[in-house]
Amino acid sequence: MSEDLKEKKLDELKQKYLKQQEEENQALEMEDKMQSILKSILTEEAKQRLSNVRLVNKELYTRAFQAIMGLVQKGMVQGKLNEEQVKEILRQLNKRRDINITRK
C-alpha cells in the first residue's frame, strides 16, 4: 500500500513538473514574439529603455507593450517610436492618483 502511495505521489510531481515546464516555455515564446514586434516598431534606444523597465517593473513593461500595440493597431504610429515617445508613454502609464485624506 505504501508503495502505491509513493508511486501516485511521484506521478503527481512529474505531472506538475511537466506542466510547469510547458508554462515556462510558453512564457519564453511569448516574450520572444513581443521582442520581435518591438524590434520592428522601436528605435534601438527606445527598445533599450523598455528593456530596462522590464527588469525593474514587469507590470509596467506589459502595460507599455499593450499601449504601444494599441497605438500601432490604431495607425497612430508613423515609422519607429523613439526613446522620448516611449518615455512619454511610460510617464502616462505610471501616473498615479494622489490620495488625500483629510480629518475633520
TrEMBL record:
Q: Does this entry carry the keyword Ligase?
A: no
Q: Which Pfam families match?
A: dsDNA_bind
- Gene3D superfamilies hit by this protein: PDCD5-like
* Any one cellular-component term (Gene Ontology): cytosol
Q: Which UniProt keywords apply?
A: Coiled coil, DNA-binding
UniProt-listed InterPro entries: PDCD5-like, PDCD5-like_sf
Molecular function as annotated in GO: DNA binding
Q: What are the coiled-coil residue ranges? A: 3-30
Which family is this protein grouped under? Belongs to the PDCD5 family.
Q: Record's PANTHER family?
A: PROGRAMMED CELL DEATH PROTEIN 5
Its recorded name reads DNA-binding protein
Origin species: Candidatus Iainarchaeum sp
